[in-house]
Amino acid sequence: MTPVGTHPELWGQLLDRAAGRPAAAPTFEADGEAACVFWRLYAGVAAPDHRPFVIGQLGQSLDGRIATPSGHSHYVNGPEAITHLHRLRALVDGVLVGVGTAVADDPRLTVRHVPGRSPARIVIDPRGRLPEDAALLADDGCRVIVVQCANVRRPPRVEPVTVAERGGQIAPRDVVQALAARGVHRLLVEGGAQTVSAFLAAEALDRLHMCVAPILIGSGPTGITLPPIERLNAALRPVAEVVRLGRDVLFDCDLRG
Ligand SMILES: NC(=O)c1ccc[n+]([C@@H]2O[C@H](COP(=O)([O-])OP(=O)(O)OC[C@H]3O[C@@H](n4cnc5c(N)ncnc54)[C@H](OP(=O)(O)O)[C@@H]3O)[C@@H](O)[C@H]2O)c1
Predict the structure, then answer these.
(1) 3-state helix, strand, coil in the chain (%, to 5)
(2) What is the number of the ligand 1 atom nearest to the C-alpha of 76?
(3) What pLDDT, in 10s, does the model give residues 58-99?
(4) 146 Cβ below 6 A of ligand 1
(5) What are the CA-CA distances from residue 191 to residues 8, 31, 77, 217, 247 (Å)?
(6) Is 71 close to ligand 1, i.e. is its CB under 6 Å away?
(7) Contact in structure between 248 and 77 (CB atoms under 8 Å)
(8) Which of 101, 166, 245 to mutate to test ligand 1, by most ligand atoms within 8 A of the CB atom?
(9) Comparing C-alpha atoms, which of 100, 139, 104, 105 is closest to residue 123?
(10) Which residues contact 141 (CB under 8 A, 6 or more apart)?
């Protein structure tokens, strides 16, 4: 399995494509196979063939856990996988988490490990659980959008987006449409498990990046949970490319089939 590597020139071309700037055709002679893997992994995120485009990601252990029972999740995956996550952030218009992750991890959701600009930060917080001092509310020039289903008062720099509930949940496809109407056409759903699972169950993801780390946590929340099926022939079997990220293995799943 070819490691994905770092390819500064290709990365610059991907950032150009993501920003809509004219970009030279990529050349792969220098690093051969690794450069092709790198390009295939990111080109469809930088310039998807349709919009809105939604990619989900989760990092999990060999036994399918995303955190310990107390919610400690830093870090399941190794440094190359963290860099990969920052690359995804740099290529999209918006990065979205559920309020469970915003409260448990207090993430910044910025791009720090690679060159590139930080996307809009989006939280699904139906009932106003997001603390006013959450790190993702930092005043750094990036948009902050909160998706809610009730009229909740938010700090002045937050753009509230109110989406109607259906059966106690906000339908992920409604979230995607509401964000696209506000200019967020490429969306990364970064976690946690409930949020990514809801988007997957609603067929609102085009791609899913599952990054499996060689660690056994033994107990704690698991990654994807979907409505039960009786027989395996009803299971999702996406076409997947398998890529090495340091010691971790990334399954790049195409869900459009
Ligand atoms: N390993 C990884 O890749 C990774 C990534 C991110 C997070 N994490 C870990 O995951 C854990 C948090 O995940 P989680 O699954 O508990 O929570 P989560 O998915 O981050 O947030 C779930 C909450 O967000 C709101 N929400 C999300 N989608 C909604 C929808 N469609 N409709 C209505 N409400 C919606 C609900 O808030 P209300 O409860 O207010 O209704 C829901 O309870 C933490 O331990 C974190 O460290 C791991």
Answers:
(1) 25, 25, 50
(2) 1
(3) 999 999 999 999 989 989 999 999 999 999 999 999 999 999
(4) no
(5) 28, 33, 14, 18, 21
(6) yes
(7) yes
(8) 101
(9) 100
(10) none
Confidence at residue 191, expressed as pLDDT on a 0 to 100 scale: 92
Per-residue pLDDT at 30: 66
**In this model, does residue 2 exceed pLDDT 80?**
no
Q: Which CATH superfamily is domain 8-223+237-254 in?
A: Dihydrofolate Reductase, subunit A (3.40.430.10)
Best mutation site among 55, 62, 70, 73 for ligand 1, i.e. most ligand atoms within 8 A of its Cβ? 73
Angle at which helices 32-46 and 8-18 cross, to 10°: 20
Cα dihedral sign for 137, 12, 182, 123?
Answer: negative
- To the nearest 10 degrees (0 to 180), the angle between helices 8-18 and 79-91 is 30
Name the least confident of 26-30, 169-173, 251-255.
Answer: 26-30
Strands 186-191 and 94-98, bridge-based pairing: parallel
Residue for token digits 């290709």? 10
In degrees, to the nearest 5, what angle opens at C-alpha 55 toward C-alphas 53 and 59?
175
How many whole angstroms from 190 Cα to the centroid of ligand 1? Answer: 10
- What's the pLDDT tens digit per position in 109-155? 999 999 999 999 999 999 999 999 999 999 999 999 999 998 889 99
Is the shortest distance between the CB of 124 and ligand 1 below 6 Å? yes
User: Looking at ligand 1, which atom is closest to the CA of residue 99?
Assistant: 24
